[in-house]
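Is this the right way to post structure tokens for a design question? Let me know if I should format differently. Anyway, here goes:
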């Protein structure tokens, strides 16, 4: 059952309200390239304890994550408003099926049915590398270009190993 004009107007109003709230909150306007010293109001970071700086960096990372999520939500809202104008609002972009009215009431910027969204997330999950494959031991590496410092040291030695010192010092050669 297609959405009525009244329902479309309600969803449009809901989307515009969400957009206004996001823009008014300033959640999407933070400048990521601002130096940490500018954010903290400190002239330099040298006199601060490293734990203080770690706390500031942690808070900054959280803020940036929230801002990114707000930007993504704003983009989704704009896409939904465009779809209302185009007459494709409420239709899944993957399957062409109608999106449940209940889903649109919960997430007015939804562009997929619940099933299509689940399929997309499952495909994303399947394409992620396993953590175990990333940290495999040297004999079982997927990518032989990745080598640990231990592998290199075992193969070539280091500046304190006896072989390295003997090769560099011609006076130590046995006759």
């Amino acid at each position: 059952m297609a959405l009525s004009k009244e329902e479309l107007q309600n969803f449009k109003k809901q989307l515009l309200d969400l957009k206004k709230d996001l823009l008014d909150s300033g959640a999407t306007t933070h400048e990521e390239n601002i130096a940490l010293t500018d954010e903290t109001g400190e002239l330099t970071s040298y006199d601060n304890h490293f734990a203080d700086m770690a706390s500031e960096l942690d808070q900054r990372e959280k803020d940036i994550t929230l801002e990114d999520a707000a930007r993504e939500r704003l983009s989704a809202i704009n896409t939904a408003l465009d779809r209302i104008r185009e007459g494709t609002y409420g239709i899944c972009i993957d399957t062409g099926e109608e999106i449940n009215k209940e889903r649109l009431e919960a997430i007015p910027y939804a562009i997929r049915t619940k099933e299509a969204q689940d399929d997309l997330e499952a495909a994303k999950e399947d394409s992620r590398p396993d953590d175990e494959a990333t940290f495999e031991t040297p004999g079982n590496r997927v990518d032989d270009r990745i080598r640990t410092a231990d592998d290199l040291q075992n193969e070539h030695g280091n500046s304190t190993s006896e072989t390295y010192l003997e090769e560099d010092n011609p006076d130590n050669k046995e006759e």
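Format looks fine. Someone answered above. Worth noting: The mean pLDDT is 76. The CA atoms of residues 48 and 161 lie 40 Å apart.
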